[in-house]
Structure prediction request, 406 residues.
Amino acid sequence: MDITVDAALLAQLLDGDDNDGDAPRLLDELEYLRGQVVLLEDKLQSAQGEQAAALGHGTAATMTARVGVVTAIPKWQRIAKRQLDGCERAVSENKRLRGMLALQRELVAGMEEKLFNWQHGAATQPPLVDQMASRAKTVSPSALEALQSSASEARTVRLEPGDKVVLEMLVSELDGMFAHASETFRAAGVFALPSESYSKAAVKTEYGAAGSRDSESTRPPLRSFVELVEVDVSPFEFEMTNRVAAICAERQSEITGSVPYTNGGWEPKRVHAEKCRFQRVLRGAELTFEMLSAMKEFAFDKGVVVVWRTVSTCEERFPGLLVQEFGWFMATPLPARPTSCTLERTVVHFEPKRFASPSEVVGAEGSVMTDLVMSAYKDDMDRLDRMMENMLLDESRKLVAVPTYR
Prediction:
């Protein structure tokens, strides 16, 4: 900014006849105005710098928000695909049921016609009910009782005295697992992973401390396990996601027919122990596994950590073997979008063992039983994820549909 002064006017003011002492005053005013101009220029530059900084901060915040949106896009795509697949399956199932209903109606019409003919003496054979009753008389009652007993036993999961001891032991290990949660996540490289969907399984071996005569390659192995590392971004608010997860986990336990085990010294809302069964298919044969599990939740202001321990067995196919499962889960608000997205991180170890020698290291590489247990875990988490998605979508629709007044 610059001020241009008319030279003629200045000469007239300095040399003219009417400069009766006004010229020095005017020069003083001119100097004052020039000083004010310099001061205003400084203020203008300072204001421009503050505005640029504010715009830069706003741009950074906007870019951070955009990063959060982009991070949540893959999860929304998976949710949309699952919802579409579910809708298509529902349409197909509805079509199948309609066909079955039409067939049943035809069968009922045929039975009504036969009944009408029989009542009017057209039928020469004894009624179908009498035929079935006569055949049932030839079946041994003991065989029927054995069949009913086996069917009931197949559906019922019972807690044995030894199961309770194992569950108590598993629960006692949960606090120690929580104490090593940060170390476990760091060792698995979770904190170095970006905040986006990620899943990887790898076989790992932990070695003992090297002795005076042991080299790095000859240290004794302590354990061999499959490590599963997963990171996911849920496009739903943290508090709602955490609440829905607890509800869905309880519902899934009810669906699978698991048997809970409680102890007066536990806090029911934080500690959960149960026994359940799950099926896997190996070379066309269906195998039944029994699993004892214990889980504990640690809630904080800015997140939640869940740790769990399980022991899975399948005596019919893998006698004398078991698979131990160590799990750590951490959920926090997504830093880029803390009010609308949740960052979920999981580390799970699947370790095969032998009942006869618990200290023996069983190689996890190529362990069929370990692979089956891990696949069961993934299927279980997939079902839980689907259930949560449906409930979270319903909750979100309710929030949008109900207006809020202030």
Notes: The radius of gyration is 37 Å. The chain has two domains: 23-123, 152-399. The first strand starts at residue 198 and ends at 207.
